[in-house]
Amino acid sequence: MRSLLMLSLLLATSSAIAADINITVGIPTIDASEYHRPYVAVWIENADQTVAANLAVWYSQKDSKEGAGSKWLADLRQWWRRSGRDQAMPIDGVSGATRPVGQHQLRFDAGKPPFAALKPGRYGLVVEAAREVGGRELLRIPFDWPITATRHLDTRGEHELGLIKLDLNP
């Protein structure tokens, strides 16, 4: 009986901790004669706008006649100033190749890094995009941590980013 009670308690505790975070990053179709996929950085910021965690950095993974793709990461100005210049690229589990037009999913378990390290408080999901022969755009979605109820938050870009969604599921 005692072991059954312990098992019930363990399952109840683990399900309370187990939550998922789903982020959708929309890259819109842009009608341009010279189109380049955007560099994109996705991160969580603290209330004071310092970086709490890098979630994704998409950039050109190969060298070109202009130089290494990482050379242009500084065009992601806010991310670069707050975190990027201190990073050794590639960042394991975070960096990857640029993405084509469409909706791109990022999924995280709240009980695992990087979310497991967040202290209770107010945070922001930040998505920044910069495109060669294009523009720059930065979007923020504020949210509270830890997740206490299901929340579906979103915002929409005007040029370089499409629909950005943050789904928090306890």
Query: Which sheet architecture does the biggest sheet show?
Result: 5 strands, mixed
Give the helix tally. Answer: 2
Relative helix content: 10-25%
How would you write the strand order of the largest sheet? 4-3-2-6-7
- Runs in which pLDDT lies below 50 for 5 or more consecutive residues are 1-17
Residues in β-strands, percent: 35-45%
How far apart lie the N and C ends?
29 Å
How many separate domains? 1
Structure characteristics:
170 residues; mainly beta; five-stranded mixed beta sheet; four-stranded antiparallel beta sheet; 9 strands; 13% helix; disordered N terminus
Characterise the protein shown here.
With 170 residues, the chain is mostly beta strands. The chain has one domain (19-169). It contains 2 helices and 9 strands, in the order αβββαββββββ. It has helices spanning 2-17, 77-82; strands at residues 20-27, 39-45, 51-58, 95-96, 102-109, 121-130, 136-145, 151-156, 163-169. The strands form 2 sheets. Strands 4-3-2-6-7 form a 5-stranded mixed β-sheet. The chain has a 4-stranded antiparallel β-sheet with strand order 5-1-9-8, with no helix packed on it. Helix 2 links the parallel strand 3 and strand 4 (95-96). The protein is globular and about 50 Å long. It starts with a helix and ends with a strand.
Give the helix/strand layout.
Blueprint: H1 2-17, E1 20-27, E2 39-45, E3 51-58, H2 77-82, E4 95-96, E5 102-109, E6 121-130, E7 136-145, E8 151-156, E9 163-169
Parallel strand pairs: 3-4
Antiparallel strand pairs: 1-5, 1-9, 2-3, 2-6, 6-7, 8-9
